[in-house]
Design brief:
- The complex is a heterodimer.
- Chain A is α/β, with parallel strands linked by helices.
- Chain A has seven helices and four strands.
- Chain A has a four-stranded parallel beta sheet with strand order 2-1-3-4, with helices on one face.
- The longest helix of chain A has 25 residues.
- Chain A starts with 7 loop residues before the first helix and ends with a helix.
- The model of chain A has no long low-confidence stretch (mean pLDDT 83).
- The radius of gyration of chain B is 17 Å and the shape is elongated.
- Classes of the chains: A alpha/beta, B mainly alpha.
Chain lengths: 159, 154
Amino acid sequence: MKIINTNSKEILKDKSVIIKEVIIIIFISILAALVFNYVNEQQIAILYHPYKFDNDKQLTVAQIKKIHKHKEVLFIDARTEDEYKSGHIPDAINIPADMGRSAKMEMLSKIPKDLHVIVYCENAQCNMAERLAKEMQYLKYTSVTVFKGGWEEWNSENN
Amino acid sequence: MNPKYSTILSIIFRLIIGSVFVFAAIDKILDPYTFAADIRNYQILPDIFSNILALILPWIEFFCGMFLIIGLYTRSSALMIASMLVVFIFAISLAMIRGLNIDCGCYHSIGNSNKIGFKKLIEDLIYFIMASYLFLALSLGPSIDRFLKKRTTK
């Protein structure tokens, strides 16, 4: 007993119907996307523009340590909980960039928008810190900086 | 195989893929910003298009999934889902080959267990087989399509 159609002619018979239906689905999706984005609180620009951080110059470990000593900034570790637990910059809090949205929002809601924040992840190649920083910038945090060197650089200076 | 079983199989596949796609889509629709960042992490498309894709793709997933469940444009929805899965499988494979350790952007609310990897590939492959089956199946089970067809042929 055949359960799938192996006759290509028969499948192609409905070609024009399928093309029509695919176009309809794409059309209503685009329409829904544009309308919803217009009313959505989490609205984003149609075309992406990369955000430049306040201080574009890269922070060195020495600078970071100086800032750290003054305790005037909040350090956020954007790596996973396991990575954070296995070692992190003293006093840094952990907000994994890929954690669930609602949990992340709850953690972020405790941080004042005008606090100086330095976000880091493993090293210059990881993108978690940048991702979290961009999200925070989007949420109107005024002073967010990425420490590119991350935990690796901090740790190597300590040893 | 008894044609009754193939119909039951179609209904089960429709419900599984339909709900997976609707569930995954809603999350991304509500949080386009994170999904756009996930798309950029794949480093396949120019960054400038990441937002527009993050806005539209979840809605296509949503409608295709919803249509599969209710049985409207069933075959076309199955075809589109199968095509999307090919793209996802390609994107995940490419990211794995490049050694990127990134979030797959599949479902957000689940959280940490969401990294790309062989598990994700196999998951998508299974959905792809289900969707392809639905596109080619002789019987798709009760649907709005069938109801409309009956009315027009009467």
